[in-house]
Write a structure and sequence with these properties.
By secondary structure, this protein is an alpha/beta fold. It has 2 domains: about 30 residues, no CATH class; about 325 residues, TIM Barrel (Alpha-Beta Barrel), CATH 3.20.20.80. The chain is built from 14 helices and 12 strands. Strands 1, 2, 3, 4, 5, 8, 9, 10, 11 and 12 form a 10-stranded parallel beta sheet that branches. A two-stranded antiparallel ribbon has the order 6-7. Helix 10 links the parallel strand 8 and strand 9. Helix 1 packs across helix 4. It is globular.
């Protein structure tokens, strides 16, 4: 008999684990990811949404993880449907779960210039927009003052020139220029002097021209922020892996070294694998997804500046790729399998690949 991790956790609660494990495979008896990470001082996390607020999912997340990241519930659109209204109900529910489960909650994301922003922002003057940023940060960071790490700015880098920087277009940069980034970080530091403040970015693992340009542009922004005394503590690299795009371990490793050389810690914040270019056959696809995780993590985890690893959900059914697939083709049969567990929350080869890389990585430095 093969038990899923969810079934094992349920049996633990019922006191029936001892007999069930006799027929379970050895895979279910391996150390969990949280412990494998803790052995090397690496935090292990995942995105988490209010959809996972049920006993089975909660048990799995507590078992495997040391931290969770609210997927959308802390973003401005969720919290501020109107300028006058703050709605923290969904974020509070996740914070309550984190406290019950003794999990760290990671703050994501205070300002996202090009997405997840309420429409009322477009009506504001420059001064009103600065005031709205400060008010949003004061209310949000103040409410969740126990959060130690915040994505202050999400995905600022892009393809549009704003002064000397290539940034993503959006309401904040249109109104305030590149300074919206520095202004937001300073406002966050004023509210939370002890918090770790992070800039979270995407596409940097790609080793095509697009990805290399993203790396260069991100380093340009980092240098500007550091040269002007902006309180930046770390860089989040999302890691939405696209296997149809080139990946060069040496090139990505050198990029991580460039960040570390600037005395910043690194977090892998949203790891998953887009399996659209892989075979339809599930067994072959799962093998390819696992190999993709393995190759990326072997490079990323070799750098001691990388201090945490978070996946963008644990189970395929909760993935944003899965949701897009259903929206685009409700009757389709080929659903994405980008994560460590399948849609029924059974561990896949990707789980084993990640566990193997956690075992072989070097220990993180203390502090």
């Amino acid at each position: 008999m093969r038990l899923t991790r969810r079934e094992i956790l349920r049996l633990v609660a019922l006191g029936a684990l001892s007999t069930a494990l006799d027929s379970a495979s050895a895979e279910e008896q391996k150390p969990n990811l949280r412990q494998l990470g803790a052995d090397k001082r690496l935090a292990i996390g995942s995105a988490f949404s209010t959809n996972e607020l049920n006993p089975d999912d909660e048990s799995l997340f507590r078992h495997e993880l040391s931290r969770i990241t609210p997927e959308n519930e802390l973003k401005m659109t969720a919290i501020r449907p109107t300028r006058e209204t703050f709605d923290f109900a969904r974020a509070d529910a996740i914070a309550d779960f984190a406290r019950r489960g003794c999990l760290e909650m990671r703050g994501h994301a205070l300002i996202w210039n090009n997405d997840r922003q309420p429409s009322w922002l477009a009506t504001l003057s420059d001064a009103e927009m600065r005031s709205a940023i400060e008010e949003h940060i004061e209310r949000t960071m103040g409410r969740y003052e126990g959060i130690e790490v915040w994505d202050v700015i999400n995905e600022p880098v892009g393809t549009v020139a704003f002064g000397p920087y290539m940034l993503r277009d959006g309401p904040f940069v249109q109104r305030l220029g590149p300074d919206y980034i520095a202004f937001t970080f300073r406002a966050a530091r004023a509210v939370a002097p002890a918090a770790k403040l992070v800039l979270n970015e995407t596409h940097t693992e790609r080793d095509d021209r697009f990805g290399r340009n993203y790396r260069r542009r991100l380093l340009h922004v980092i240098d500007w922020l550091q040269d002007t005394g902006v309180p930046l503590d770390g860089i989040g690299l999302q890691g939405h892996l696209q296997p149809d795009k080139p990946f060069d371990p040496d090139g990505f490793g050198a990029f991580l070294d460039e960040i570390a050389r600037r005395k910043l810690f690194i977090e892998i914040t949203e790891l998953d694998v887009n399996d659209a270019s892989f075979p339809d056959d599930i067994a072959a696809r799962d093998q390819a997804v696992a190999a993709t995780y393995r190759r990326f993590l072997r490079t990323a985890l070799a750098n001691p500046a990388v201090r945490s690893l978070s996946f963008w959900q644990l189970g395929d059914g909760a993935s944003w790729y899965f949701a897009q697939s259903v929206d685009e083709n409700p009757s389709g049969h080929r659903r994405p399998r980008p994560l460590l567990y399948d849609a029924d929350m059974r561990p896949k080869l990707a789980f084993d690949a990640v566990a193997d890389e956690l075992r072989r990585m070097p220990e993180r430095p203390r502090g």
